[in-house]
Structures are given as structure tokens and as C-alpha cells.
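Many introductory courses stop at the sequence. We go one step further.
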Amino acid sequence: MTPPVKAKLRALFNGILIALILLLVYGAYGYSSKNAANNQSAPVRSSGTATVGGPFQMTGSDGQIYSQKDFAGKYMLLYFGYTYCPDVCPLDLQRLTLALDSFAAGGGDISNLQPLFVTIDPARDTPQVMAEYITHFHPSILGLSGTDAQLADMAKAYKVYYQQGDVYEDGSYLMDHSSIMYLMGPEGEFVTHISSNEGPKAFAEKLLRFLP
């Protein structure tokens, strides 16, 4: 199979997968909203002592080089995953997309928040691949890729677990990884995290509580 045909098939597969995930997320939205209403426990603001975060340098999906200094004065919302992920990553990114829409609808200032999708699979997730992939999600999301060393340093700073699985005969493989999102403050300080069991509504409400 030629590379152009493979690319077209992968794009078609991604489109179908994301469409199915949209249905799943919207179907679960009402359920998660009810759970959030029954569990009205306000998060505790971090004292800033959590050892999460630090310097990094990665290449953006727009081809530019970014470090933590480029986001000074803004809140950062980081998620570590990869584009070949069959389920968890697209589901989490769609949840993020719905939460950001709800955040803006509730009066939140999107311009004060930079969502970052950091690949844990830089061998396959080039900036070009990341650029195509993130078009399926919220337009404010910036993809970040880099060398293995750059990723290792950033993952260590953010306490992110990732590991490559077995390689199949066709050369494909899956990545095992943690799926927590990190909200970082304007000075790079850890603010709070968003776990995978928080639905879009609860997610947006948390952002509205923490962001000015």
C-alpha cells in the first residue's frame, strides 16, 4: 500500500473514530452532569508546593519552538497522549473540547488559557501529524512534539507515566500512559488536576472556579 493511500485511510479512520466518540461523549454528558450535581465538593486550591511542572522546550504543531516562557502570564492546561491512541486520548480531547466550549459559554476567558496536547509518541507524532490531528478538536489546542530526550524531561517534570507496548508484525504498537490533565498557573505553578472521571460540565465548572 502506497504512503498516500495509507494517509487517506488513516484520515478516514480518524474521522470515523472521532465521530463515534462524539456520540459517546454526548451520550455520557447527561450522566456525568447528574453525578456532578450529586457530588458538589469544591476542589481545594493548591498551595503551590506540589512539585509538578518545570522548564521544557518542544516543537509546536505550527512548527514553532515553544518553552514554558512563551506561556507566561497564561494558564496552561496540559494533556499527554498520542494520535494513534485508539480510545482514551480522542475521548479525553473531545471531553476537553466540550469543557472549553462550556467554559466560554459560562463567561470564561479562553484567551487566558492555553490547552496543550503533548505527544508521548514523538517517533510517529511529528508536528505535521499533530497539526492534522488537532483539527478534530477545539481550535485553541496546541500540539507539542519533540525529541525523545525533550519528552523524557517534560514527562519527568509533570510526573507523567508512559511506556511503549509490544510491537506487532506490521510495526504498529500502542502506548501505555497516564491520562490526567494539569492546570498550571500564570507563573508556571501547579494549580489543580482534572481526572478522567470528570465530565465536561464538572470540568468546565472547575475551570471557572480557578481561573479569574
